[in-house]
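User: Need the bound-state model for tryptophanyl-5'AMP:
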Amino acid sequence: MTHTPLVLSGMQPTNTLHLGNYLGALKNWVRMQEEMPCLFCVVDMHAITADAGYGKPAELAQSIREVTAAYIAAGVDPKRTPIFNQGQVPEHAELAWVFNCVARLGWLDRMTQFKEKSGKHKERASVGLYTYPVLMAADILVYRATHVPVGEDQKQHLELARDIAAKFNNDFGAPDFFPQPEPVITGTATRVMSLRDGTKKMSKSDESDASRINLTDDAETIASKIKRAKTDPLPLPASKDELKDRPEAENLLNIYAALAEQDRDAVIAQFAGQQFSGFKTALADLTVARLEPINKEMRRLLGDPGEIDNILRSGASRARAIATPIMDEVKKRVGFIS
Ligand code: TYM
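Assistant: Bound-state model below.
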């Protein structure tokens, strides 16, 4: 059986979204809406797995609204595409429990993101943080989604989702029950790096705000962060071979190419041999030009939180209409009496 194409993706509502989230994922979501039916989720249940979203109900609720506003401001159309928060669709948690029994400890032990996030004191991490990728598999498969547009850092989690789908299909005698969801990792900025260290991923949890460009930063802040971004003493390279061992230069060129929607080689040719100062001015102008309308629209949408809540409620009910019959079939397959 071939499964009907369907896109699902999500972002955590912890802190504000940054340029990495936009270029690695959100920008591609907007494009994919033109190609296939989509569902976009605000993963609030994932957000409480770590300190950033745990025990702070007012901040979490605000963050859910901000992320929703960012999706819409970037171009996701809530009329066409359901936007919802995971917490309003109980089938995610239901399927995650079944998947907790499908996934093996050894599989989760290999997850690099858990190792990074739990740090030196693994025993103090929540159990939720450990089974985080299992919930992610449920997010995708509860809709039988086939395509998952994400940044490169989610690749391993997608592999786990595929393994869980295959094992469920095998163990419950249903060879095609769940699809093998495909990661869609496209563009020149699938892994945007920190502005302070070109070997580290741009991240919401980095202590230094100067390491990232937030979607809510104003023009002046964006320009100042780019101006202060770490670079090396050489001029800009004339070819991509010269980018070897120059992670900061590579990162800034990738960001430029992604924002300008140009081929990276064309961008390298355009700035070849120039000093970083001029390039940084061009990059700051481009970043402001791309982010300012999103920022402005986000602020407008956040002025009416009731409307955002309505969008989430309606998105959740549309999402549940897809998830409920699939979850009913899962229960039957597993042997639960209903
Ligand atoms: P999250 O919230 O960490 O990030 C949201 C999306 O942004 C991408 N991303 C980046 N892309 C490029 N460069 C970066 N520096 C960068 N930082 C983040 C992420 O790859 C992601 O696509 N586990 C997911 C959320 C999730 C999910 C799902 C995604 C939960 N369930 C189901 C897809 C399908 C996460 O923590 O993303």
